[in-house]
Specification:
Blueprint lengths: L15 H17 L11 H8 L3 H28 L2 H20 L4 H18 L3 H8 L6 H30 L3 H26 L16 H7 L2 H19 L3 H7 L5 H14 L1 H15 L1 H20 L8 H21 L3 H4 L7 H12 L6 H11 L9 H32 L15
Helix pairs in contact: 1-6, 1-7, 1-8, 2-8, 3-5, 3-17, 3-18, 4-5, 4-8, 7-8, 7-12, 7-13, 9-17, 10-15, 10-17, 10-19, 11-12, 12-15, 13-14, 13-15, 14-15, 14-19, 18-19
C-alpha cells in the first residue's frame, strides 16, 4: 500500500516485525515508566532510609503524585486524541527519565515533592493514553483482545526482570542502602531514556490517529454520570484498588515482624507485583467470562480476607518464612486478578459505547482515589508505633491489615450490589461478555 503524501502509516503499511516491536515497546514502557513513582511497593525500607524521611512523609510524597495523577486522568484521554503517539510517548519517557535522574540523587523533601508532582504530569497526563491507543493502532480490530492480553504478559515479564535487577543491587551493596537505591534509580532513568529515544525513532505518524473534528463535548460525561452501573463499578474499583495497593505493606511486615531477609522479601515483592500478573490476569479473565466479573471480584475479595487473616496470626520466626512468602504471593495473585477484571463490570452492565470512554474516566477518578490518602494514612499509623530505634510495632501492621480486610469486604459487597442491580433492573447479561482487563 502506498504511503500518503504526509508519510502517515496505516496498520497495513507496517511490517509484522515493526508491529511486534511497537507492541513490546508500549508494553515494556507501561511497566517501567511507573517503576520510579511506585518504588516503595518493592523497596520500602531501603527507600525510606535512603531518603531520610518518616513513613508519613514518604506516604505524603506519593500522595502528591497520586493527587496530580487524579487531576490528569480525564485530560490525558483528550490529549491522546489531539497529539501523535510518537510525540506523547517520547516526551513522556524522556521527561520521566530526567525526573528519575533527579530522584536518584536522593534530594531534599521539598525537591521530592516537586519531582513527584511533575512525574504525575509526565506519566499520566502525557503517557497514560499511549499504551492502549498504540496497541490498537498496531492491531487489526479483531486482533485487539489477543494483543492487549499479550501486552499484559509482556508487562509482567518486564516488571519482573527489572525487579530482579533491584534484588541484585540490594544484594551487591549490602548495608549501604542509599547507594543501592541511587544505583537502581539511575538504572531506571537510563532504561526509560532509551525507551524515549526508541519511541521517537520507530513510532510512525499514524493515519487518523489525531481527532480533528467534533471537538470535545460534555454530553458523554453527562450520560456516564447518570448511569448507576458506572457509579457502582467505580465504588467497587475504589475498594478493590485500596486493598490491591495496600497489600504492598506485607513487604515491610515480612522483614520487620516475621524476620524474612530483605533479599528474600524483595524477590517475593517483585513476584507479587509483576510475576504473578502473568497468571492472575488471564486466569481471572477466563473465569470472569464464564461467571460474570462482579461475582468473581466478590469471591476473590472474600478469599483475600481469609488469606490476610491467616498471615496476621502467623507466629514469628524462621519456621514460618516459607508460609509467609506463599501467603504474600497468594494475596498478590488475588489482588492483581480482581483489579484486572474490575473494569469489565462496565461491559457486564452494558454501558453503551457512546459514553464508555467517559465512563472509564469516571472509573479512574473515583477508583484510584485511595492513592491520594492511603499511603499518608498508613505511614502515620506506622510512625505512631515506631520505637526509638526505628522499628515499627506489629500492632501498626495489624491495624493496616484490618483496614484492608474492611476494604475487601466492602469490595465484595459493592460488586454483589452491581450483580443484584443488573439482575433486578436489566435483562440477563450473556456469559460471553468480553472482559476488559484494567491497567496494573
Amino acid at each position: 500500500m502506498a504511503n500518503s503524501p504526509s508519510n502517515e502509516k496505516t496498520y497495513a503499511d507496517l511490517s509484522s516485525g515493526r508491529r511486534w516491536f511497537l507492541l513490546i515497546l508500549a508494553s515494556i514502557g507501561s511497566s517501567i515508566i511507573y517503576a520510579p513513582a511506585y518504588l516503595k511497593a518493592v523497596f520500602y525500607d531501603p527507600l525510606q532510609q535512603a531518603l531520610g524521611v518518616t513513613n508519613t512523609e514518604l506516604g505524603a510524597v506519593f500522595g502528591a503524585y497520586a493527587i496530580t495523577a487524579l487531576i490528569c486522568y480525564l485530560p490525558s484521554g483528550i490529549l491522546a486524541d489531539k497529539v501523535r503517539m510518537r510525540t506523547l510517548s517520547s516526551v513522556g519517557f524522556i521527561s520521566t527519565a530526567v525526573l528519575t535522574f533527579v530522584y536518584a540523587m536522593l534530594p531534599s523533601l521539598t525537591v521530592l515533592y516537586i519531582v513527584f508532582i511533575l512525574m504525575g504530569i509526565t506519566t499520566i497526563l502525557i503517557w497514560w493514553g499511549v499504551r492502549y491507543k498504540l496497541v490498537r493502532l498496531v492491531s487489526k480490530e479483531d486482533e485487539y483482545p489477543k494483543r492487549i492480553g499479550l501486552s499484559y504478559g509482556i508487562y509482567g515479564v518486564a516488571g519482573l526482570l527489572i525487579g530482579l535487577v533491584s534484588t541484585a543491587i540490594v544484594a551487591a551493596v549490602g548495608e549501604n542502602l542509599g547507594l543501592g537505591v541511587s544505583i537502581y534509580l539511575y538504572f531506571l532513568s537510563a532504561v526509560i531514556l532509551i525507551l524515549g529515544v526508541l519511541s521517537w525513532a520507530f513510532i510512525p505518524k499514524f493515519a487518523g490517529e489525531i481527532k480533528t473534528e467534533g471537538g470535545f463535548s460534555l454530553v458523554e460525561f453527562t450520560l456516564a454520570f447518570r448511569d448507576p452501573v458506572v457509579w457502582i463499578a467505580a465504588i467497587s474499583l475504589f475498594f478493590v484498588y485500596f486493598y490491591y495497593t495496600g497489600v504492598t505493606y506485607t513487604t515491610p511486615y515480612m522483614t520487620g515482624i516475621l524476620g524474612v531477609s530483605l533479599a528474600a522479601a524483595t524477590i517475593v515483592a517483585n513476584v507479587r507485583n509483576y510475576g504473578i500478573t502473568l497468571l492472575s490476569g488471564p486466569i481471572f479473565g477466563q473465569i470472569a467470562n464464564k461467571f460474570r466479573p462482579s461475582i468473581v471480584i466478590a469471591i476473590g475479595s472474600l478469599v483475600f480476607v481469609g488469606a490476610l487473616l491467616v498471615m496476621m496470626f502467623l507466629p514469628t520466626g524462621p519456621s514460618v518464612m516459607v508460609i509467609a512468602c506463599v501467603l504474600v504471593v497468594l494475596l498478590g495473585f488475588i489482588a492483581n486478578g480482581a483489579f484486572g477484571v474490575v473494569s469489565a463490570q462496565l461491559t457486564e452492565g452494558k454501558v453503551p459505547l457512546t459514553h464508555f470512554g467517559a465512563a472509564t474516566g469516571i472509573l479512574s477518578i473515583i477508583g484510584f482515589l485511595p492513592d491520594t490518602f492511603s499511603s499518608t494514612w498508613f505511614g502515620a499509623i506506622m510512625d505512631a508505633q515506631t520505637d526509638a530505634e526505628g522499628n515499627v510495632a506489629a500492632g501498626a501492621y495489624q491495624q493496616i491489615f484490618w483496614i484492608l480486610i474492611g476494604s475487601a469486604i466492602l469490595a465484595a459487597i459493592s460488586s454483589l450490589a452491581l450483580w443484584l442491580y443488573l439482575r433486578k433492573r436489566r435483562e440477563p447479561v450473556s456469559a460471553e461478555v468480553p472482559v476488559e482487563v484494567a491497567a496494573a
